[in-house]
Amino acid sequence: MNTEQAAPFQQQLITLRRQVLEQLAAQRGGTLGRADAAAEHFGHPEDSRAQVYTERDIEFALGEHETAHLAAIDAALERIQAGSYGECTDCGADIGTARLHAAPEAARCLGCQEKAEE
């Protein structure tokens, strides 16, 4: 895929990156420090210990998911710069444009993605 064809995907990826960064900032308390945000989220004495642990685990899992998503977005932006965007990183085949519109950070074609998920 040439640079001109990749331009709309690059814009979509930049917007998506900004949204993920905003979500991460909101999860981490926005302008609050990380320790203050944690105390605010988990410092309610009326909550049971199990509830606090469950909420903490969910927040950590969401944060990890968004961090991985951000890494995938950054990798896709790097592939655009390198001129390899739209090529499967496993087999080298073209990734369908419908897939890229749905998931512009996709690094694999559907076949390779299915194999990777197994």
Task: Describe the 3D structure.
The chain has 118 residues and is mostly helical. The chain has one domain. Helix content is 69%, strand content 0%. The protein contains five helices and no strands. α1 runs antiparallel to α3. The longest helix is centred in the middle third of the chain and has 34 residues, at 49-82. It is elongated and about 55 Å long. The two termini are 28 Å apart. The model has no long low-confidence stretch (mean pLDDT 82).
**Strand residue content:** under 5%
Largest sheet: none
**How many domain regions?**
1
Radius of gyration: 18 Å
Inertia-based shape: elongated
* Quaternary structure state of the chains depicted: single chain
Output the structural class.
mainly alpha
Quick check: average pLDDT?
A: 82
Low-pLDDT stretches: none
| Cα end-to-end separation | 28 Å
Into which percent range does the helicity of residues fall?
A: 55-70%
The string of secondary-structure elements, in order, is HHHHH
Secondary structure blueprint with pairings:
Blueprint: H1 3-27, H2 34-42, H3 49-82, H4 97-102, H5 110-117
Based on the model shown, name its key terms.
69% helix, 118 residues
Quick structural gist:
By secondary structure, this protein is mainly alpha-helical. It has helices at 3-27, 34-42, 49-82, 97-102, 110-117.
